[in-house]
Amino acid sequence: MAEEPQADCLFCKIVVGDVPATIVHETDTTLAFRDINPQAPTHVLVIPKEHHPDAAALAAAAPQLAADVLRAAGEVAEQENIAPPGGATVGYRIVFNTGAGAGQTVWHAHAHVLGGRGLNWPPG
Ligand code: 5GP
Ligand code: ZN
User: Fold this and answer.
1) Distance, CA 74 to ligand 2 centroid (Å)?
2) Catalytic site residues (predicted)?
3) pLDDT of 1 higher than 60
4) Structural domain span for residue 13
């Protein structure tokens, strides 16, 4: 079920413009902006404009919106020139940290789009 904007949610504040962000991509339903603490040359966060607490909750409540986020992530990668084809060194990773034990710190669903450097697998 769709949730209302949360007054105490950082990413809801970015959606309405109360907190500034470097926006790189926007659709009717999604917003993408640069991470404030980048872990790679390209590190963009893609969020649904609607508040959902994490990726699993988003996919369960609003599967089309989850698909919109994935599509936007792919478009961001194209825009950032990190999408294949382009040789063995080109590629990107989409990460949804889900739960505090996995590093989630903001409780508004978001995809990290990471690229522009070699990405080891499995991650640390
Ligand atoms: P998580 O740890 O929840 O998977 O990801 C949250 C991300 O949000 C982190 O990578 C963190 O650097 C980023 N972040 C935290 N505060 C801000 C902010 O005010 N602006 C932007 N652009 N990113 C933020
Ligand atoms: Zn929110």
Assistant:
1) 22
2) 110
3) no
4) 1-51+61-91
Residues with CB under 6 A from ligand 1: 10, 19, 21, 33-37, 45, 97, 103-106
pLDDT-derived band at 2, boundaries 50, 70, 90:
low
First to last CA, the chain: 34
Gap between the Cα atoms of 100 and 25, Å rounded: 27
Residue 117 covered by a domain: no
Mean pLDDT of 53-74: 98
Would you say residue 109 lies in a domain?
no
Asked, for residue 4, whether it belongs to a domain, the answer is yes
Confidence class for position 14, pLDDT limits 50, 70, 90: very high
Domain count within the chain: 1
Residue 104 in domain: no
Contacts of 56 by beta carbon, 8 Å cutoff, 6+ apart: 98
